[in-house]
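Progress narrative, work stream C.
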Amino acid sequence: MTAVQSSGWRARLARLKTRDRGELALLAGAFVFVLLLLIVIKLAAEVLEGDTLKFDRRILLALRNPQDPSLPIGPRWLVSAALDMTALGSPTVIGLTVMAVSGFLLLHGMWRNGLFVAFATGSAFVIDEALKQFFQRARPHVVPHLREVMTMSFPSGHALMSAVVYLTLGALSMRIAERRLTKFYCMAMAMLITVLVGASRVYLGVHYPTDVIAGWLIGLSWALLCWMLERTLERRAGWKRERTEAEAQAD
């Protein structure tokens, strides 16, 4: 066997190992997606039946001054920080972030990634609006709101959209980063922002805790589903490329 043939077999073996790892990752992703979906269905059923109201009220009241529910616990600057943090999940900030990132990816020739980010965000917005209209849960009146709200309560749109957008961007950053520590940092920051945005909604009194939990779970589920779809399309494109190269070598 010549050196060229040996290197060719090694390259094919490496591709097979990579393909196996990719298939296992997709299977694991599918399992997690189904698990998250079952949890969301269970939580939604509990919300519709009113079984979560006692838990929701307890958390909201625990974050306010017992003598004056209009005053949140903690230092004064915490309210300002919560308002700043909750803006990271607003439609305006989310829209500008996605527009900037998608445009950057498209200009650099990464059109598939750019379209992926835009699709994941746009479809998540439609899902959020549809679910709000379906459940028609009113905003909490347990404590005074510290921010103006205009839509239904379940699920939290800020929590859902931040989970989809920031986790998707975190996953893309992980693929670009080379060092393992950098990959961990990218996803950790994405998760931190997502958690803080959702927590700020409860602290400001504009969402029940179960609204935010549902938003996180639905957003994570949708981001995971979009990731699996994108990876599947990329793998199919890779298989077609390998088949074309193999046929060219055979000729």
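Work stream C, second folded protein:
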Amino acid sequence: MVIKRMLSILVCYLLLLLTLFIFQRKLIYFPEKHSIEHQQELAEQFNLKLWPSIDNYLGLIANSNKTAYKGTIIVFHGNAGSAINRIYYLQALEKLGYRVLLAEYPGYGARKDEPTESVLIANGIETVRQALDDFGAPIFLWGESLGSGVVGGIMKTSQIQVNGIVLVTPFDSLANVAQHHYWFFLAKWLVRDKFNNIKNLQYYSGNIAILLADEDEIIPNANSLNLFKSLHYRRQLWRFKGAGHNSLPLASEQPWWKEVMQFVAWQNGESP
């Protein structure tokens, strides 16, 4: 009787693991979706436009005639919402003289397809190449949470040259974060989209700024610090005491915005 009961529990557990394996991306990606018409309306409300074109847009950019910029910052956002929810990057970074492009993922906003690691990285490479074609260098990549994995995947390919990277609440690998939260489901071995930042960024020799929330409840500090310690080249860490994963001090007047960009842009002539 005991053996039969244990076998029954084991079968149920294995079926649960199989279900989680099949549907795991529903637990990783939480896109906010819009029709293309509604996406345009939202963009216009914030004086933005779909870039590079409405028919095949890759992100959102300010609807401005300004042409003189220090460079272009491409923001790859986190796993929830969409690019339109990241207006604070435009508000803070354009004040510092940078063009800001809020990249949009396939499956988010009004974009088609389903998000996966390979899809997001391929799309990220396309986005950076298009930005280089349209605006030229220097290009800086800004990865927020899941976006840190997208940035890491872009750099692993060695297909793109960028001038600096900023990673906000990043992780060493998504598999390690999943294992922290769901160890009882053997998550590290079940996760298909691993986003291994330690491996992907090991040969990047540009400046990397890491922003860490001291009270991060989503990505443990240990995972962010594992990544920071693994970097072999010029790096700097900003820690925000009392901040959680979604409560960083993002007001545009915060001095850290300027400090971070001075650091990552130092090789391009700005003071560190």
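DSSP finds ten helices and ten strands in the chain. No further action is required on this item.
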